Amino acid sequence: MTTIVRETKETKITVDVALGKGTAKVDTGLPFFDHMLSTFARYAGLDLTLHARGDLRHHLMEDVAITLGTAVQKVIPATAARYGERTIPMDDALVQACIDVGGRFYYRGPLRNKLYEHVMRSFCEHAKVTLHLRILRGKDSHHVTEAAFKALGMALRDAMVDSGVVFSTKGTVALEVK
Questions:
Q1: Could you tell me the CA-to-CA distances from 83 to 38, 90, 144 in Å, in that order?
Q2: How far apart are CA 4 and CA 13, in angstroms?
Q3: Cα-flanking dihedrals φ and ψ of residue 147, to 5°?
Q4: Dihedral in degrees, nearest 10, Cα atoms 40, 132, 147, 91
Q5: R_g of the chain, CA atoms, integer Å
Q6: β-strand partners of 112
Q7: 20 to 30 A Cα–Cα from 164, which one of 2, 29, 82, 171?
Q8: Nearest-CA neighbor of 28 among 17, 19, 37?
Q9: What predicted TM-score, i.e. pTM, was given to this entire model?
């Protein structure tokens, strides 16, 4: 289990995360965001406990994404399968997520909701993952956003499977700072 605490003048966030069964206990004070984070954890197979409070919705959601991304980066096995791809249908929505957990940040969306787009970008940057997210269909923003979190979770679950070997022609995908 990895625990990350982030405290600023604007927010206080505690995240506990481990590879597991997808159980989540999330409390940000934002019901839909809590639902998205719990959904992500379930589909990613992460056991997640997250408590967060903040002054503004934007600050809270951004700092949660930063903290969660940092925690997830720490639980990715060194010998992870590395790549994952899932396409999720949800009512009118169809969303594809393609991920590489090899240690380099890149994000390509977009989600239609700018705040959730920012959450995805901040998560990817701090998890040090590459994510291509494609909205193939969908008009209802709730369905599109939820399908995106589910697709990300499932793709991440596939990418984090321990393959037993480092999946890189470079021989390593880890960066150690001393």
A1: 22, 23, 23
A2: 8
A3: -60, -35
A4: -170
A5: 15
A6: none
A7: 2
A8: 37
A9: 0.93
128: left (phi over 0), alpha (psi -120 to 50) or beta: left
Q: Give the DSSP letter of residue 170.
A: T
Please report, for residues 50, 142, 159, the alpha-carbon distance to residue 13 in angstroms, rounded to integers and kept in the order given: 7, 25, 26
What's phi and psi for 108, nearest 5 deg? Answer: -135, 120
d(C-alpha 102, C-alpha 117), whole Å? 22
List Cβ neighbours of 68 (8 Å cut-off, separation of 6 or more): 15, 17, 37, 48, 50, 123, 126, 127
Question: Which is nearest to 29 in space by CA: 11, 9, 47?
Answer: 11
107 token code pair:
């994000």
Q: In what order do the strands lie in the sheet with 83-90?
A: 83-90, 93-100, 130-137, 106-108
pLDDT tens per residue, range 57-99: 999 999 999 999 999 999 999 999 999 999 999 999 999 999 9
Q: How far apart are CA 177 and CA 51, in angstroms?
A: 29
Report pLDDT digits (tens) over 121-152.
Answer: 999 999 999 999 999 999 999 999 999 999 99
